[in-house]
Model the fold of this input.
Amino acid sequence: MDKLGLLKTFFGHTAFRPGQEEIVDALLSRRDVLGVMPTGAGKSVCYQLPALMLPGLTLVVSPLIALMKDQVTALAQAGVPAAYLNSSLSFAEHNEVIRSARAGAYKLLYVAPERLMAGDFLQLASDVEISLVAVDEAHCVSQWGQDFRPSYLQIPQFIGKLARRPAVGAFTATATAQVKEDVRSLLRLEDPFQLTTGFDRPNLYFEVARPKSKDAWLADFLARRPDQSGIVYCATRKGVEAVCQRLEKAGISATRYHAGLEDRERRRNQEDFVFDRARVMVATNAFGMGIDKSNVGFMVHYNMPKNLESYYQEAGRAGRDGEPAHCALLFSPGDVQTARFLINNASENEALTEEQREWVRRRELRCLDQMTAYCKTMGCLRAYLLSYFGESAPEECGNCGSCRSQLERRDMTREAQMILSGVARVERKYRRGLGAALVLRMLHGSRGQRVRQLDLDKLPTYGIMKDVSQEQIRDYIDFLVSEGYLALGEGEFPVLRLGPRAAGVLRQGERVTYARRVQKPAEKLRPAREAAPSAGPEGLFQALRGLRSKLAGEEGVPAYMVFSNAALADMAAKQPGSLEEFQQVSGVGTVKTAKYGQAFLKEIAQWLESSSDGGEGQEREK
Done:
């Protein structure tokens, strides 16, 4: 069977996504590959399909136990023989996988990098034909990133021990030039075919919100999405616990995930989310790469991440089924300080020298500045992200919080002069400078102990903005920093200083125009598009969802592994009446047609019959 036939038979698609076919062809010709593709772009098909066409076994090096289990389960649902080797298996289970692999029972074997140099695995590798080694999350080999895993450096050593060098495919969603160079050199790729697909995810709606109460914002957000599943990321374990407790208290089905939980509880909580027993997962970035759930409808970052690479990868875990998904980031100035603290007190990368760790720290602080700038930009959020990853983009996308809001401008020269004068007075009194929070309190006329200890209440600018809310003053300061009138120093507690443009305002009469985004009234409560698109009747879609849940429960697999929401939506639109027509549904392959076709055809026929007496049946296609 050719590649398109296999693509339809096992994966249910009649055409490749951008970049997939080129990578598949390169691997089939035994050429190394470096594929940089955003989360949700279909990286796994790029090595799973060649594995079906190449002789022998394909090894997939994967960093996380949960991700291996999800992918092997999904492959089994599609009829592809696969297994995994990691620390979650018992001694007997481990030996059984080794025995079956030696007997040729699998086309794909997922393995943790730590297992590659184990004696029994090296023996297996010498006993079977290995045609392809696929390295998932290949950026973990880079010593300069927070995801660095020393065990990834063993991959070239393992490949060197094989009787014949297989093709090596390296895949990552991290697109920086430094990481790509590290992957090429550290994995010793030989003349690799390199492809970076477009990073735009048109189905994702990006938003940055600055709510007075993050909890109230989140409660309203979730109330408008009662049927959607999603993830809420928090910066700290303490934050995860607090947010999860508040959601549970509000009657929302939520669970939690962070590195402080025992392994058993983490696995149970993840399964509750994957199997839709809990619709909201509250987690730290420890949940990062370990999620392969396709029907995630929203992603909320309760705190600002430390860099745009992490944000875009995490946000990209929403909408993997192609359905519209909402990615919101709740920003507050305190998030910047929290992120700085986490960077300056990081315990990762112990394998690096002190000098290397300092280089990483400074690089991460620069990345934090770019992340902060994203949260404060007045321009299109999608354009900002794509530009960061080296892609050109139109000035407006029409599908982000900035593009769906109105830009208001007004003169704020007087307020700018007061703030800049206050910073100038502080700089004269304290040459090392003070932080933005203290300057803000001084301008507002705070009677706090620290303000009085530093004699800030004696400055001429003390209290000159007492009639302006502290929140508004903070917005003004952020705006002046972003426009170069003020500058923030480095360090865990950066000081606020006059920027290069301050003199023009203080001495030359330059005017300052303040700009801010205001949500359009019509869009403020824009309802989330829940499940089925308008192409098919909602009632049929919900009936198909019910059947999917029933079948998934009987088989003990997550519902999305039976069929994705996108497949159900296409099924509801096309309303097939035969197995031949059923197989034309997007996302439905030969294997799943044989397995589930009759059950879904029966459900469709019953729905059409029951609705024909009402009005809903008239929606079906003629």
About this structure: Residues 248 and 326 are 22 Å apart (CA to CA). The longest strand covers residues 405-411. The radius of gyration is 27 Å. The chain is about 45% helix and 15% strand.
